[in-house]
Design a protein that fits this description.
The protein contains three helices and ten strands. The chain is α+β, with helices and mostly antiparallel strands. The strands form two sheets. Strands 1, 2, 3, 4, 5, 6, 9 and 10 form an eight-stranded antiparallel β-sheet that branches. Strands 7-8 form a two-stranded antiparallel ribbon.
Length: 189
């Protein structure tokens, strides 16, 4: 009988949770996540300092003229033209946001609630096309409106997605016809 008591006394259930070890793992994981975010922030800042030679963004004129087209949607960022992964972060061009676009004879007015607005003068517009991606955003073929424009010595692609994707084609035609008109007049291209 004592043998059975001895065997029964030897079997004990294991401790369910070691709270100190679990708290240590949670704190370690949170520190690791904070460190990764800090590294990402440093990379963003470093990229901005590399692009510090980019001139200030132009602002819209007081009287830009009558609107040819308007669009609401999302601004997905800007890249060096032809380099869809080379995001430009200087002057807030890397900040994604809602957007209201207005195309006039004077140029393209980009209004971004919560981010820096900018204006692309008509003489700086180079082309518009439909594409599927821009730094960090990939959609179905033709899902993004990409507007290429000259800023200082840099050609920039800016990506937009309309709330109504059917509008993209009209924007491509309008921007490209403005560009053809500007080129035939002999203005700088």
């Amino acid at each position: 009988m004592t043998t059975h008591l001895h065997i029964a006394a030897a079997k004990q259930s294991a401790e369910v949770t070691d709270w100190a070890a679990r708290a240590g793992w949670v704190v370690g994981l949170l520190l690791f996540i904070a460190f990764v975010y800090w590294l990402m922030r440093q990379g963003w800042t470093w990229r901005g300092s590399l692009q510090s030679g980019l001139p200030e963004l132009p602002t819209a004129p007081d009287a830009p003229g009558e609107a040819k087209l308007t669009m609401t949607g999302r601004y997905h960022g800007s890249t060096t033209a032809g380099q869809w992964l080379d995001r430009i972060v200087a002057h807030g061009l890397g900040t994604r946001s809602r957007v209201e676009l207005t195309l006039t004879d004077a140029g393209l007015d980009v209004v971004r609630p919560g981010a820096a607005d900018f204006f692309v003068p008509a003489a700086q517009l180079r082309e518009a096309r439909l594409d599927k991606g821009i730094a960090g955003k990939v959609l179905a073929e033709g899902g993004l409106l990409i507007v290429t424009w000259q800023h200082g010595e840099t050609l920039i692609d800016s990506g937009f997605r309309s709330d109504h994707a059917a509008e993209h084609t009209a924007w491509v035609e309008a921007v490209n016809s403005m560009n053809t008109h500007i080129t035939t007049e002999g203005t700088a291209r």
